[in-house]
Specification:
single chain; alpha/beta; Protocatechuate 4,5-dioxygenase, Chain B; nine-stranded mixed sheet; three-stranded mixed sheet; 10 helices; 12 strands; about 40% helix; globular
């Protein structure tokens, strides 16, 4: 049985079991989610930076899922394509993923169905991609019996991410499986390090990135406008995993969801200020959304 070993444990999140437990406990909401959640959550959007910066928003989404759904058999996590440049979804085919919390089994039956729907099996594409990995310990902690289907979603011509997401949503709607689709994406990467400074390099520019550029992507997701998420990202540079988000929004839409719920929105500059009292001329946006 193949096992995908952790690539960013000890960097993006704790490198030991104890460190993971402590960090997750710190990330989890102290109280129940107060937003008006769907009676059953079909999907969500989470960020994938280091837990110090965005772990609380990711934890918020998984906590909302547990609050609304109680149990989940399998999470299909659609990741950003930071290292893989294929033209179709790339799925981890079989075996297990390992984190400091142990192993989570791949849902091989569901994975085979997703391959039939258009995903391409590729364990290699997942070896160093962090966008899915950083979500897995939250799943293991909150849903210890759940399995995983891991899909990297590169943007493709012709809106294939929406086509694939719609196929996945239709299959899940008819299957009766207790499955939740999660998209992993950060939002605007603003500043000299990212080569994106259309408003200059000052606090006003970071406010624009947060209040205008991020929100254009967030609002399209909340309005279930899957078709324009990738196009908007290409034009505005306001998401690094737009195809993952488009796939999940499409899946949620075909399953009957009418709108998304924004649970939280922040950025790395705000976290730096609140946690460390330090200012920055760069930022990366993070949002927590459920459908």
């Amino acid at each position: 049985m193949s096992t995908r070993k952790p690539a960013v444990a000890g960097q993006f999140y704790g490198g030991t079991r104890q460190e993971c437990f402590e960090e997750i406990a710190e990330c989890l909401p102290k109280d129940a989610i107060k937003a008006q959640l769907p009676s059953k959550i079909i999907g969500g959007i989470v960020p994938h930076a280091g837990w110090l910066f965005s772990g609380d928003l990711a934890a918020m989404v998984f906590t909302a899922v547990r609050q609304a759904n109680k149990t989940v058999d399998t999470f299909i996590v659609f990741g950003a394509a930071h290292r893989s440049y294929d033209t179709c979804p790339l799925i981890y085919p079989a075996g297990a993923w390992e984190t400091p919390l142990g192993q989570i089994q791949i849902d091989e039956a569901l994975t085979k169905e997703l391959i039939q729907l258009g995903a391409k099996p590729s364990a290699e594409a997942h070896h160093y991609e962090h966008s899915i990995e950083v979500q897995v310990p939250f799943i293991q902690y909150l849903f210890p019996d759940a399995r995983l289907a891991a899909v990297i979603m590169p943007p493709a011509e012709g809106g294939y991410e929406c086509v694939f997401g719609t196929k996945v949503g239709a299959f899940l709607k008819d299957s009766g499986l207790k499955t939740v689709c999660i998209a992993s994406t950060d939002l605007t990467h603003y500043g000299p390090r990212y080569g994106f400074c259309p408003q200059g390099t000052n606090q006003t520019a970071l406010t624009w990135a947060y209040e205008v550029n991020d929100m254009e992507f967030i609002n399209k997701a909340l309005q279930m406008d899957a078709e324009h998420l990738v196009e908007t990202s290409a034009q505005k540079e306001n998401a690094c995993g737009p195809a993952a988000a488009a796939a999940v929004v499409s899946a949620a839409q075909i399953a009957g969801c009418k709108k998304g719920v924004l649970l939280g929105h922040t950025n790395s500059a705000m976290v730096m200020k609140s946690r460390f009292g330090q200012s920055s001329n760069e930022s990366v946006g993070y949002a927590a959304i459920v459908f």
